[in-house]
Amino acid sequence: MTPPVVLTIAGSDSGGGAGIQADLKTIEACGGFGTSAITSVTAQNTTGVQGQHLLPVEEIEAQIEAVIEDFDVAAVKTGMLATSEVIELVVDHAADLPNLVVDPVMVAASGDRLLAPEAEDAYKSLIAEASVVTPNADEAAVLTGRDIDDPEAAERAGQDLVEMGADSALVKGGHVPGDDVVDTLVTDDGVTTFRHARIDTEATHGSGCTLSSAIATQLAHGDDLSTAVGSGIDLLASAVRYNVDVGEGPGAVHHLVQTRNDAARGSTSEAVERVVSALVDADVSPLVPDRGMTVASATPYAETPDAVAAVEGRIDRTMDGVRPNRGVRFGVSTTVARALLAAREHAPELRFAVDCRLTNAIEGALSSLDGPAAVYDPSERPGSVSDDDTAQWGVTRALETSDETPIAVVGREGVGIDGRVLLFAADAADLIQRVESVQGAVKNDG
């Protein structure tokens, strides 16, 4: 194994959510080998910074030189540098620091100041050495003197930073008002914006460190700037969305969210196979729609259908029971996959789904389940929703209008061929039990 080496020059966070700790977690998660030069030791946790001790500049320099003398460093990122002397030290070594990503850390997420006021001007000399500088709106305002309250102002600030000498500037939009977060990347060649939904959470501790480390690691892999920035932003969006609830404060971003999600693909696929095997053994023929039955399972942090495993080609009725006509794959059976993802927006614990036919007997059998059922009427579907998205829209509507989280959703596209019953569960065993319960109730009723 010869992963690219990434050096982080930053402060230590005893709370583990930001600083060197966040950097090294993210670098490893993105496939790099993390090395470090610690500038400052902070006593902090999720509620704030209780103390800060700056290491002697010569000790910081010794760490930098020890790393660059032994390792083939492919990228470098800076975090908390604290004083003008440390910033100048990094500038002096800039010629030996490739793909330099400068995160101008000035204030912690808790509001505690992490940069001496006189050091703000010193940052301008470091920005001139940067491959990319990644300020948030508040930091960009300090560096450029602009008020940044919309994406257009962020673009102008980015242009100012490029004029200071940076190869590029990514002005982050997390502190800019708006329903979406708009991150603005400015280079001499133009402007690229990255947009994603704003997450309603205060657990953003370590977000800047995570993003800059991810970008540096992707650059170390050889990605072009736009790809590296886009990949880093996608990682951060998931890390904030699936933040970790630790400590008494708001918590921290989930640095390993994509790694954990990728690692779960094997067990997720195997769980679908177990469900399919159980349904075959139970011969659930009465529940199988004419179009075939789909069993699907999402990875723990699935966002898109390609993170949902399902039976490719569906489960069909045969002369002697039911059989899957193909194996389990990710990114197939997108109708049920999207419906499952829609359910998870309201109940993230739901990871499994199966679609059954809709008959009067099957709908009546839903009362045998250990949770409520909900109904959506496709005739109420807005014109902007396509036929393919009806189930996704319907599940969203059913969950939004239910007092409790339903474990079954009935779509009245019609009884028989065009209708569907979606059963949901948090684990494979519960899904199997619910399918068998419905089947048993149908048989007893018959």
Brief characterization of the structure:
By secondary structure, the protein is α/β, with parallel strands linked by helices.
Any overview of this molecule?
The chain is about 35% helix and about 25% strand. It has about 450 residues and is α/β, with parallel strands linked by helices. The protein has two domains: about 5-260, UDP-N-acetylmuramoyl-L-alanine:D-glutamate ligase, CATH 3.40.1190; about 265-445, Class II aldolase/adducin N-terminal domain (L-fuculose-1-phosphate Aldolase, 3-Layer(aba) Sandwich), CATH 3.40.225. It has a seven-stranded mixed sheet with strand order 14-11-10-15-18-17-16. Helix 7 runs antiparallel to helix 8 and helix 10 (about 265-280) runs parallel beside helix 14. The relative contact order is 0.09.
Write the layout of secondary structure elements.
Elements: E1 5-13, H1 19-29, E2 33-45, E3 48-54, H2 57-70, E4 73-78, H3 84-92, E5 100-102, H4 123-127, E6 132-133, H5 137-144, H6 151-163, E7 168-171, E8 180-187, E9 190-197, H7 207-220, H8 225-241, H9 257-263, H10 265-282, E10 295-298, E11 308-311, E12 315-318, E13 321-324, E14 328-330, H11 334-346, E15 352-358, H12 360-365, E16 373-376, H13 390-400, E17 408-411, E18 416-425, H14 428-445
Parallel strand pairs: 1-2, 1-4, 4-5, 5-6, 16-17
Antiparallel strand pairs: 2-3, 7-8, 8-9, 10-11, 10-15, 11-14, 12-13, 15-18, 17-18
Continuous helix count? 14
CATH architecture heading of the largest domain? 3-Layer(aba) Sandwich
Low-confidence stretches: none
CATH-level-4 superfamily name of the largest domain: Ribokinase
CATH names the topology of the largest domain as UDP-N-acetylmuramoyl-L-alanine:D-glutamate ligase
Distance between the termini: 62 Å
Strand order of the largest sheet: 14-11-10-15-18-17-16
Largest sheet: 7 strands, mixed
CATH hierarchy, class of the largest domain: Alpha Beta
Query: Overall mean pLDDT score?
Result: 91
